[in-house]
Design brief:
Elements: E1 5-6, H1 7-13, H2 20-28, E2 32-34, E3 37-38, E4 44-45, E5 50-55, E6 58-64, H3 74-77, E7 81-83, H4 85-104, H5 115-128
Antiparallel strand pairs: 1-4, 2-3, 2-5, 5-6, 6-7
Helix pairs in contact: 1-2
Length: 130
Amino acid sequence: MAESVRLDKWLWAARFYKTRPLAQKAIEGGKVRAEGARAKAGKKLQVGQALEIRVGMELYQITVVALSEKRGPASQARTLYEESSESVKAREQASVERKAAAAAEPRFDRGRPDKKQRRMIQKMKRNSGF
């Protein structure tokens, strides 16, 4: 096994990003930090390094356990890193909060308004002078 691997190859092999170019763009965009500092795509990654990876709204705080330049099945990719328990808890909590916020927010963009929504629209129009 290799002693070091390019960061963008490893992120692709670990299945954080679907393609290497996406991994490179994420690194260039500052979404990946190695040992607390902003990283470059060509950075040589070694076992034991700490990474912070933002994928969408999720933030992963991981430690590199193994290196690989080849993309394999998801079960194999999961063995390349170890996520901290605080990171898992924080991601789960953020997910619950996002779901609660989405449920509490009224949705008017789902096709035609129902009877209650039509009444609200008519009331707004009457009050605004339209």
